[in-house]
Amino acid sequence: MSTSTTQPARRGGLSNVVDIIVAPSAAFGRLREVPTWGWAFLVGAVLGIAGTVMAIPAVMHALDLTLPAQLAADPSTAKLPPDQQQKQIAMVMSISKTVGKFFWVFAPVGLLIVGLVQALGMTIANAVAHGDGGFKKYFALSLNVAIVGFGLNSLVVGIIVLVRGPDSFETPTAIQAVIPSLAMLVPGAHGALAGFLGAFNVFYLWATALLALGMTVVGRLSRSAAWTTAIVLLVLGAGYLAYGARNG
Predict the structure, then answer these.
(1) For the whole model, what pTM was predicted?
(2) For the chain, what percentages of helix, strand and coil (3-state, to nearest 5) are there?
């Protein structure tokens, strides 16, 4: 009895990994019946780790170019005597570069956090719009969609960085900017503006559309409620990226 229940769920989970890209409607239908997310999390995490590892040399190069000046301009560092300033900057640089080398470890954690936040947002929208979904279904939907918005996005960034070489990137923000986005319409954009516009890239927009369409199937939300929720989540994510890139 338990075997017959487990096997279809496993096949469904593996099928969803492919179908979320090539046949999303089929994936949404299965997620409504069996909200599986284990395989999606595994694939998304592996893709995210691979992309992060490939991008780490560029991140290290960008930190070498930008972080010392940012640290020197910090009020707590600027008030120190010159010799202590240099020691402080060297210490922070050493810590930052050590953490940066293992930044790939945070990819699975970040994936889960995004899934939880999006699922919570969709569950709230479900209650307001009187859908018939629930947190479990929306969490599964989020992690399956993350194969595109997180996994493929990270992998493509990593591949492009690898091809171009780490010396091509002068700021951390420039690394994510390799994916076509609204930031390309404002060539001089930097810092928070570049981070915000960069969130509207091809993979994030693709994932936003998948979330909206998925909510109409998984939770039976109206199209207007689903699209509004997905767009709000995208804008919130853009705000987070803008905050992180404010010094970039």
Answers:
(1) 0.86
(2) 85, 0, 15
